[in-house]
Amino acid sequence: MTITIDTYPTLGEAASAMRTGSQFLGGGTMVVRGLNFASPDFDKVIRSTDSALSEIRPEGNGIKLGAGVTMARLMQASGAEFLEPVARAVGGPAVRNMATIGGNLFVCSPFGDFGVALLALDALVQMSDGQMLPIEDFYRQRENLRGLVSAVIIPRSAHGAFRFRKVVRTKPKGAAVVTIAAHLPGGNRISGARIALGAMGSTPLRAKDAERALEGGSLDAHTVQRVCEMCCNGLNPQDDSIASAWYRREVAPVHLRRLLLGEES
Length: 265
Prior knowledge:
Elements: E1 4-8, H1 11-17, E2 22-24, H2 31-36, E3 44-48, E4 56-59, E5 62-66, H3 71-75, H4 84-88, H5 93-96, H6 101-104, H7 113-120, E6 124-127, E7 132-134, H8 135-141, E8 149-154, E9 162-168, E10 176-183, E11 194-198, E12 205-206, H9 208-214, H10 221-230, H11 245-261
Parallel strand pairs: 1-3, 2-3
Antiparallel strand pairs: 4-5, 5-8, 6-7, 6-8, 9-10, 10-11, 11-12
Helix pairs in contact: 9-10, 10-11
């Protein structure tokens, strides 16, 4: 099968060239695998040299990350230190040198660890046409969206309020049994908590009952226990080669409790 590769100087031009049977090439961790195995799903690869895709810059009280920023680069970025553990959790060194923020939004469970963090951080997804989508809306609409992702915007600094944990069977770079991210603003009394879990559905999902149980409370053992009892409500983990749905439901509350109480895994 012949594969055509077209390169465009701007993301807008690349987005206009997308059609059925084409794939956008960012870092290539998934698309190149499809090429290597002669995937019948596409016969055209589109890429862009738009410099905006690799930008990392302040945005209001937060930070804007171009969709083409790699995990390896993000690990070294000034002002994004709180995201370093998340970027480090994505594969091994070779994968992190290729894997991009935008690409991570489209991989399927049990991958997509960075998207779990973005969901907990209430990130905005900027599309190539300028449209801004709250990340929860993005995941709901992902299969039907037109255009390309140009950037993600984390609207406020999360230093000191953000926690992340990835549970794997094979360290250091296995696929997730479950990924957990929590944004816990408010200090002694939590206000506006966000708890997101990966590998507990087809996309990252918020544990909204758990968030409500934590609202206005503190991270004491009693409150945390109540939060953990509710963390799987409304979630839909699947059986796969990494873990069963039953096992994921069993371990997610255990690791959420450890994360909230600051315990080692």
